Amino acid sequence: MILAGSFGLAAVAALALLLLPPVTPAPALTPVATPTATSPMASPTATASAEAVPTGTVRTTLGEQRARLDMPTVPLVGLAVFFHGAGGDVDSRLDDAWLRSLVDAGWAVTSSDFHGNAWGAPSTSADLAALLEWTATQTDLSPTLLVADSMGALTSLNALARSTSFVPCWYGVEPVIDLRTVAGVSGSTAEIATAYGGTPTSADNPAENIDELASEGTSFRIISATADTLIPNADNAAALSDGLTAAGAEVGYRAIDADHGDPALFDADDLGAFAEGCLQ
């Protein structure tokens, strides 16, 4: 009552504030490490909170490569990366029912330009490293599933071979795995020479490194176009299945009597069943 009588209630409140202990600032956040091109599958721990996870389509540019991330509106279950075929880009097949079925099931699906028709060159693995660094900030996830169409098999399998990180599942449609067999694709010889800065080495050719791919513990699903008139099926899809099986990998193989690019190869139910198994 003496303080109230002498200084008034406002003065008492001001004095009480002065007597409060100082507020200690929160410690600074530790910066997130950036993955290197030599380990393209390594993504940093994401800093995005659950409340910050977006929905719908998110786009950015990483270096000179456009990137896209399609987020589900249902609870997020995993991250899938799509690798386009020759002539494709960041948007290839992402709006098709085949890949939209993954988004509808709760998958985040991401892709990049991957330097266009680069045929699995090291630049594409660097693109993947940048893509995964960005998607980690959006989803707080590393990839569970890699999905490849045609030439995209080279991009994704070479990324696996160049990386020390584990990806549980790989799904390939009409996969190209042998650079020595694509001369029949218009422009491919010049594109390969440009992308690789010369002639690729055996380390750049998945067909010559199947044992190494099998040793990573990844599960594979291969959709084969047995009537393929563009890419020799026996030297690519069938050879990949046979080689992985012989090396002890877990492999599912489905042969479809179809030519390269036939819509019958892009079965949403087949992809969805495999993807669901990857989450077990």
Explain how this protein is built.
With about 280 residues, this protein is of the alpha/beta class. The protein has a single domain (about 45-280), classed as 3-Layer(aba) Sandwich (Rossmann fold), CATH 3.40.50. It is about 30% helix and about 20% strand. The protein contains eight helices and eight strands, in the order H-E-E-E-H-E-H-E-H-E-H-H-E-H-E-H. The chain has helices spanning about 1-20, 95-105, 120-140, 150-160, 190-195, 210-215, 235-245, 270-280; strands spanning about 55-60, 65-70, 80-85, 105-110, 145-150, 170-175, 220-225, 250-255. An eight-stranded mixed β-sheet has the order 1-2-4-3-5-6-7-8, with helices on both faces. Strand 7 (about 220-225), helix 7 and strand 8 form a beta-alpha-beta unit. Helix 2 (about 95-105) packs parallel to helix 8 (about 270-280) and helix 3 (about 120-140) packs across helix 4. The protein is globular and about 40 Å long. Mean pLDDT is about 85; it is low at about 1-40 and about 45-50.
Summarize the structure.
The protein is α/β, with parallel strands linked by helices.
